[in-house]
Design a protein that fits this description.
The chain is globular and about 60 Å long. By secondary structure, it is an all-alpha fold. A hairpin with a 2-residue loop joins β1 and β2. It has one domain. The relative contact order is 0.13. It starts with 5 loop residues before the first helix and ends in a 9-residue tail after the last helix. It has a two-stranded antiparallel ribbon. Keywords: Membrane, Transmembrane, Transmembrane helix.
């Protein structure tokens, strides 16, 4: 009978894999987290500025970061959603403070964006095969990362915001079909809605819980379409981020008089 040592018989403790070397990589692995940090920081800086900028509407163009506008005090009649101002005149803060938290929450909890900012900002880890500065790992089981689980609810809100941006684009098309800004808003609305529909939660909601696709042919076709979009989720997340920032900046430049005919 062979004798078993105490160490070998004890159950293995669950520990995070440790890499003694700083990295096992030979390529320029640092480029992805660095570029991610620069791009996301620039977007956050712009979004913060846009929230407090008052030049967000020039008929018929509405800046995406300030849509919908629901208060009489800060929204001229043509800027209000369906002419509706449920907040009356008591709300005097920028409209972006009310609504930007919804699409921002959707992106912040998005599966792609989690990967991106975990690597670019928290270095958890900065790249595969690279040592990280964190000694403990709890995943998304504790506050604040446990809030990532409400991603599905932000998805519902993002659907509404996407439809509102589509409405703004169609309104611009009707009122000014030859305007460059019209096509800027249309392109942005398309990309925003494609990104939203490519969400993993959308794929699951569409038909992810079905056991028999043959019994649900319509949902299966929808699931197939969403699955194709889902394979491009990363690309759509980045492209739509640039498109919404570009469209928002374009409208504000027109509203400020920086851009005028024929560029408006």
């Amino acid at each position: 009978m062979t004798q078993t040592t105490a160490d070998s018989s004890a159950p293995a403790r669950r520990q995070r894999a440790q890499i003694k070397e700083r990295t096992l990589r030979t390529d320029q692995w640092w480029r992805y987290p660095l570029v991610t940090f620069i791009i996301f920081t620039a977007f956050l800086v712009y979004a913060t500025w846009a929230i407090f900028d008052n030049d967000f509407f020039v008929a018929p163009y509405h800046a995406p970061f300030a849509s919908p506008c629901l208060a009489e005090a800060v929204c001229e009649p043509d800027a209000r959603l369906f002419g509706w101002a449920p907040l009356g005149d008591w709300y005097t803060w920028p409209p972006g403070l009310l609504i930007l938290g919804l699409p921002a929450g959707f992106r912040f909890t998005c599966y792609y964006y989690r990967k991106a900012y975990y690597r670019g900002f928290w270095l958890s880890p900065p790249a595969c095969g690279v040592n990280e500065p964190h000694s403990k790992y709890t995943g998304e089981s504790r506050f604040p990362l446990i809030l990532q689980n409400i991603h599905r609810y932000f998805f519902y809100a993002a659907i509404v915001i996407g439809l509102i941006l589509a409405y703004d684009a169609v309104k611009a098309l009707i009122e000014k079909p030859g305007g460059i800004g019209t096509w800027v808003l249309i392109g942005n609305a398309i990309l925003i809605n494609l990104y939203t529909l490519s969400c993993h939660s959308c794929r699951h909601i569409t038909a992810g819980r079905l056991n028999h696709f043959s019994r649900h042919p319509v949902r299966y076709r929808a699931w197939t379409f969403v699955s194709k979009l889902n394979s491009k989720h990363q690309e759509l997340a980045l492209i739509s981020m640039f498109s919404v920032m570009g469209a928002d900046l374009y409208v504000r430049l027109v509203a400020k008089g920086v851009l005028s005919f024929p560029f408006a």
